[in-house]
Design a protein that fits this description.
It is a single chain. With about 375 residues, the protein is an all-alpha fold. It folds into five domains: about 60 residues, no CATH class; about 45 residues, no CATH class; about 60 residues, no CATH class; about 40 residues; about 110 residues, Arc Repressor Mutant, subunit A, CATH 1.10.10. The chain is built from 20 helices and two strands. Strands 1-2 form a two-stranded antiparallel ribbon. A hairpin with an 8-residue loop joins strand 1 and strand 2.
Length: about 375
């Protein structure tokens, strides 16, 4: 949190002054390149629209508190440069839809997107700031959501609340849970703390029944695993497995035969992708690996970044090239970073197609912790 607060101060300083933070004597200056990359990628690049608006509102309030009647950001009037031929393109002369597709959908770095759009990296970063980026939605079981729920429960679930809703109105815990959105175990905990005696505690641990027809459809038609189903209905995988046995529902086959991608054909996809995924197992995973390593200077650097051994990556790329029948990578060597071949560039473009991207996310999600804006990729792209 301390680093995030420091980066927020840096952001406000730049907005208010227009100055850079390259002067090492400034208390907010970047002490090293890693700190600057953390600011550019982790903070500035990840600002949601609501958070950016909140920071701007704070900055405007600060100006007003000092009796400064000026806009947050200022640009000279356009007539000041009338008749002059200035280098570069106009800031607004960029396709925001294309930027959104490359950055948010295909997860390219700013510099990689700049190369594809024929603009500068700063131009792309400016465009990113113009995109609407919704705030992060935390799932109900994440720490921030749990904390907010506990805070709301503490404020709402007073002794007076339980006397009014539970004792006088005669509502049970299930009804109160439906009305407040606070689960029954937390309701029971607060009731006990206030000395309220509950009569329906025995129902708290009663298992939620599963509809056998729905469970059969999810398992046999959609080929979902017990773990996947359990996550949706908020039960343990073992509970789902017991219900499969109870309702005599055949479980999904073990191993490769049970994978959702097994045996599926995709006539709407390009031949190169079909060759990679319709025959041998783990084709989608190899395509994901190929997409992830592009931009790194070598297999070794990529392996450390995505936490897969270099030997595994080498074997996966070799297998992918053999399946497709084309060379996809120019291997890295001293002073010559690894780059995709023309066929490799073409395959990357195919993987960016909405249908291919959808299937790629379904069958081969990126590893947890992998960052598409990894500065090691960014610096490599700049060298290229």
């Amino acid at each position: 949190q301390a680093t995030r607060h420091l980066n927020a101060r840096r952001y406000l300083f730049v907005q208010l002054t227009g100055a850079s933070l390259t002067n090492t004597r400034h208390p907010l200056a970047f002490p090293n390149a890693g700190d600057k990359n953390d600011y550019l990628f982790a903070f500035h690049g990840g600002l949601s629209t609501p958070l950016r608006q909140a920071l701007h509102d704070y900055a405007r309030a600060l100006l007003r508190s000092h009796s400064i009647d000026e806009p947050l950001t200022w640009a000279p009037p356009g007539h000041c440069v009338t008749g002059l031929t200035l280098p570069g393109r106009e800031p607004d002369d960029i396709d925001l839809a294309a930027v959104d597709q490359l950055i948010n959908r295909q997860r390219l770095t700013a510099s990689a997107a700049a190369v594809m759009l024929g603009v500068t990296t700063e131009h792309v970063r400016y465009a990113i700031s113009q995109l609407h980026r919704p705030g992060k939605h935390n799932g109900r079981n994440t720490p921030p959501a749990s904390r907010r729920l506990r805070e709301r429960a503490t404020a709402l679930l007073t002794a007076e609340f339980f006397r009014r809703e539970y004792q006088d109105a005669g509502k049970n815990l299930r009804t109160i849970e439906a009305e407040t959105g606070i689960h029954r175990k937390l309701l029971a905990k607060h009731a006990k703390a206030h000395g309220i005696e509950l009569t329906d505690l025995r129902t708290l641990n009663k298992p939620v029944p599963l509809d056998p027809d729905w469970l059969r459809e999810q398992t046999e038609v959609h080929q979902r695993s017990a773990t996947d189903i359990a996550a949706e209905v908020e039960l343990t995988p073992e509970t789902v497995r017991r219900n499969l046995i109870r309702f005599n529902i055949a479980r999904r086959p073990q191993g490769f035969a049970g994978m959702p991608s097994h045996g599926r054909t995709h006539p709407d996809l390009p031949q190169e992708i079909r060759r990679a995924v319709e025959g041998p197992p783990h084709g989608w995973l190899r395509l994901r690996r190929f997409q992830q390593i592009i931009g790194y200077p070598s297999i070794n650097v990529a392996s450390r970044a995505i936490k897969v051994s270099a030997a595994t990556l080498t074997a996966q790329i070799a297998k992918l090239e053999a399946d497709i029948g084309k060379s996809l990578l120019n291997r890295g060597r001293p002073r010559h970073p690894m780059t995709p071949t023309e066929d490799g560039h073409a395959l990357l473009a195919m993987l960016g197609h909405p249908r291919a991207a959808e299937l790629l996310d379904r069958y081969a999600k990126p590893l947890r912790g992998w960052r598409p804006d990894d500065p090691r990729r960014d610096r490599t792209t700049q060298r290229q």
